[in-house]
Amino acid sequence: MAEFTMELNDEQKEVRDWLHGFAADVIRPAAAEWDEREETPWPVIQEAAKVGIYSLDFYAQQYFDPTGLGIPMAMEELFWGDAGIALSIVGTGLAAVGVLANGTEEQIGTWIPQMYGDANDVKVAAFCSSEPDAGSDVASMRTRAVYDEAKDEWVLNGTKTWATNGGIANVHVVVAVVDPELGSKGHASFIVPPGTPGLSQGQKFKKHGIRASHTAEVVLEDARVPGSCLLGGKEKLDERLARARERAKKGGERVKNAAMATFEASRPAVAAMAVGTARAAYEVALEYATTREQFGRPIIDNQGVAFQLADMRTSIDAARLLTWRASWMAVNGKQFTAAEGSMSKLFASETAKKVTAQAIQILGGNGYTREYPVERMHRDAAIYTIFEGTSEIQRLVIARTLSGMPIR
Ligand SMILES: Cc1cc2nc3c(=O)[nH]c(=O)nc-3n(C[C@H](O)[C@H](O)[C@H](O)COP(=O)(O)OP(=O)(O)OC[C@H]3O[C@@H](n4cnc5c(N)ncnc54)[C@H](O)[C@@H]3O)c2cc1C
């Protein structure tokens, strides 16, 4: 187990500087254009693929870094560049992690390369869990997967919503109900291969922020996938369902809580994205406050402005510390006894929303225009308190973990 450290080693610093260079030279200059276009920035993803940032190898390297700092450091730098474009670059990782976590070696080897494509022909992947009536309440998911034993195929029916890269993905990972009696424990994940008949894109959403990232409904109408597309395989699923049925007999509520806990480990990554956006807005505000003059002196000369910047930086550093701690715990298999993953996501996402709003205030009228990036950063920051579990759900998870009570 690696000791917790707040100091990046030389290799990590090199990676951080390389990512920062890409974020500053490639992502940041393209941010306003793709925000306006509200389209997936394929050329930027391709650039990222060419230099090795858009690849499974890169994420696996950061993911398995025993210090736990690899992923948060990478996310912070890319999202410092721009949240919408960065999500287009890392969104495939959500689906890839779904396969890495639940898939067999064969499934990992077959599907993950198809999620990324290659630098000459980049592809993206989508992870489809949320539904119109199942957002925070994952257990009320309705998309059904029924096994057709004669053909060894699974038949998927339902509507997924809010899927990042939904409909434009080469590979979709779809979570569906295989046993409706078991709530979220009766769910399983499926690969939907490229070109599967019955999968189509529904509405594409016009969003408030992260507009360079494609978000859409995914409709499944009798979409048939081979038995080999069930992640982890049928035998493992049958064993898991049998165990869940036993546990459900003893207490249904505990089944639901356990499902919530499984998201804990991925939350520090989202927290780090929020830290990146917050830091970007803070830096713009600091620079502006030292150069903009009113009443014959820089506006930072006023405590009202200087103290805001002091608070902004303090919150960002606190958010990063919570994030690094949670990420180190997740990588080293430490149990989140106080929902530390949720704590990091809650604090960092709320910090990003607040700090980006403060940045607009410090820039005055300029902050409110698209001539400066902070209004975009503020629109982008709002997503962090919503996806991967809203702030209210994080508080629920923390409170339940601390108290052991089924708080509603
Ligand atoms: C841009 C974007 C990208 C996304 N990408 C993906 C993706 O790739 N894949 C995917 O599967 N999903 C994705 N999501 C879905 C996202 O995870 C959900 O939007 C989120 O989980 C919230 O669900 P909901 O929108 O249905 O809100 P609801 O669950 O309806 O919540 C509405 C409000 O009620 C509050 N609330 C609900 N229950 C409680 C409670 N028990 N206690 C207190 N307050 C409560 C919530 O906090 C929130 O404020 C994405 C969403 C967006 C907006």
TrEMBL record:
* Pfam families in UniProt: Acyl-CoA_dh_1, Acyl-CoA_dh_M, Acyl-CoA_dh_N
Which residue ranges does the record assign to the Acyl-CoA oxidase/dehydrogenase middle domain?
126-222
The Acyl-CoA dehydrogenase/oxidase N-terminal domain covers 9-115
**Keyword vocabulary terms for this entry:** FAD, Flavoprotein, Oxidoreductase
Top-level taxon in the UniProt lineage? Bacteria
Instruction: Specify whether Flavoprotein is a keyword of the entry.
Output: yes
Query: What cofactor does this protein call for?
Result: FAD
- Residue ranges occupied by any Acyl-CoA dehydrogenase/oxidase C-terminal domain in the UniProt entry: 258-402
Q: Does the keyword Oxidoreductase apply?
A: yes
Which PANTHER family does the record associate with it? ACYL-COA DEHYDROGENASE, ISOVALERYL-COA DEHYDROGENASE, MITOCHONDRIAL-RELATED
The record's similarity note reads: Belongs to the acyl-CoA dehydrogenase family.
Quote the protein name from its UniProt record.
Alkylation response protein AidB-like acyl-CoA dehydrogenase
Q: What is the lineage of its organism?
A: Bacteria, Bacillati, Actinomycetota, Actinomycetes, Kitasatosporales
